[in-house]
Amino acid sequence: MAEAAARRRARGGGGAARRAERSAISVETAKYIERNIPNFEVLNEEALEIIEANAETLLEEIGVNFVNNPGALQRWRDVGADVDGERVRLPRGLARELIKTAPSGFTQHARNPERSVEIGGRNLVLAPVYGPPFVHDMENGRRYATMEDFRNFVKLGYMSKWLHHSGGTVCEPTDVAVNKRHLDMLQAHMTLSDKPFMGSVTEPSRAQDSVEMCEILFGKEFVQDNTVMTSLININSPLTFDDVMMGALEIYARNNQACIISPFIVGGAMAPVSVAGTLTQVLAEVLAGIAYSQMIRPGAPVIMGAFVTSIDMNSGAPTFGTPEAAHITYGAGQLARRLGLPYRSAGSFNGSKLPDAQAAYETSNSLNMGLLAGVNFMLHSCGWMEGGLVSSYEKFVMDADQLGTLHHLARGVSVSEEAQAMDAIREVGPGGHYLGCAHTQAHFKTAFWRSEMLDYKPYETWLDEGARDTATLATARVRRLLDTYQQPALDPAIAEALDAYVTQKKASMPDSFT
């Protein structure tokens, strides 16, 4: 027992200082990830050529629907597509020709220039969960999200070191009218954080509101010349482009703001059950959607998206972290790189109802898949639970902590003279240890990634501190982050102008909850 206690004391040397350092308030944000590792590729050249040829055949013979959008149909006629009712068939090569003006990467500017991000190339930008109508925490359980919850998640995102982006609809605040909540959500992103954010896509007029609020925040001329928003434009798979999403895309493209053009795929329901068949449909849908964005404004920034899950054939529920989803995500990354486009996919996907082992396994599979697939913009990177129905407070901070592993994996392996550590090996020699050697002393603070969430204490210490599981630790971390949150400074005149805009817009229309 005495020996065990001595070992614990030896391991804990300087523990008080380290604990004080970890408990200090910090709003440090790590730079977006720059990969120094290879992408993982599952498709050979023959497979890629087959999928690309089949996608062209699909566009030419089957086509895509643009519903309730006569303006879009006319645009397609003008560039030589065959339009029959709402069905648009594209001659082979037309979409590929149109997307040549899409940039291979772009800067999304944040109001704090130090937190602007580069989307494309070998970079990876991490953004939080998007869209759930429910929230969950271990103290209050599952419930409909409110505006207070929304603001809390924006604050947590701002306080999360490894998260580069504030996101968009981090939860859907159901206590605010549908036609007005986007105003409150945008104002929260703009004032409670200084990271980049996403615009509203639920109705074209709300996209226009997003642009006008950005013009207040950044200046009108700056917005027209630079990208300050990224927004999610989902395709109604299979092969359908609705007027709401396309209307929002038209607003953003016209104003030089970025759109993630992303099929929403549940394999076996919205796409074939086979990987090659799904990739063919994904490519065809993306080609048509990105081509349309370039018809609105050549050079408009876009991101090729692929949201992919499979289906449980017994219950009909979506499944996450599966091998099939990984194969599609890897393959779509290869297709995006061949098109020269930024790529969005992956996230902290899971179907669990609690932040438990299922959530952890499926999330880990999904996050690592995204890193290796060459994803450039990862939406849903933290907080996702219950198949995307729930934003979880505890899982948000658990995931946000684990995103640090992606940063460190992406660094790759250094073989610099210092990293080779030959002097350390010579100093220690056979039978020694490295704890006190000069190389260890010089690098121990930065050599290993260190979780701010997980518990590595000895069993006896863990037991004395209440035998807390990870969800309990996460609850405490959520409370600490919200208690220590400090709002980033914003020019009072801009804050007042945003408030006046939101107040005026809300007063101009009655509440609608449909």
Brief digest:
Helices cover 46% and strands 14% of the residues. It is α/β, with parallel strands linked by helices and 514 residues long. α8 (204-218) packs parallel to α10 (243-254), α11 (275-296) packs parallel to α12 (323-339) and α14 crosses α19 (470-484).
Describe this structure in words.
Helix 6 packs parallel to helix 7, helix 11 runs parallel beside helix 12 and helix 13 runs parallel beside helix 14. This protein has 20 helices and 19 strands. The strands form five sheets. Strands 10, 11, 13, 14, 15 and 16 form a six-stranded mixed β-sheet that branches. The chain has a four-stranded mixed β-sheet with strand order 3-4-2-12. It is α/β, with parallel strands linked by helices and 514 residues long.
- Describe the biggest sheet? 6 strands, mixed
- The average pLDDT value, as a whole number, equals 94
Oligomeric composition of the shown chains: single chain
The portion of residues assigned to helices is: 40-55%
Uncertain runs are 1-26
Count every beta strand, where a strand is a DSSP E run of 2 or more residues: 19
Distance between the termini: 66 Å
The helix/strand class is alpha/beta
Annotation field: number of helices: 20
Net shape: globular
Radius of gyration: 24 Å
Residue fraction in strands: 5-15%
Key words describing this protein structure:
514 residues; alpha/beta; six-stranded mixed β-sheet; four-stranded mixed β-sheet; 14% strand
Question: What does the secondary structure layout of this molecule look like, with pairings?
Answer:
Blueprint: H1 2-11, H2 15-23, E1 33-34, H3 45-62, E2 64-66, H4 70-78, E3 82-84, E4 87-89, H5 94-98, E5 105-108, E6 117-120, E7 123-126, E8 134-137, E9 141-144, H6 147-159, H7 181-192, E10 197-198, H8 204-218, H9 220-225, E11 229-235, E12 240-241, H10 243-254, E13 258-266, H11 275-296, E14 302-311, E15 318-319, H12 323-339, E16 343-345, H13 357-372, E17 377-378, E18 384-385, E19 390-392, H14 393-410, H15 417-420, H16 422-428, H17 438-443, H18 459-464, H19 470-484, H20 492-507
Parallel strand pairs: 2-12, 7-17, 8-19, 10-11, 11-13, 13-14, 14-16
Antiparallel strand pairs: 1-7, 2-4, 3-4, 5-6, 8-9, 14-15, 18-19
Helix pairs in contact: 3-11, 6-7, 7-8, 7-20, 8-10, 11-12, 13-14, 14-19
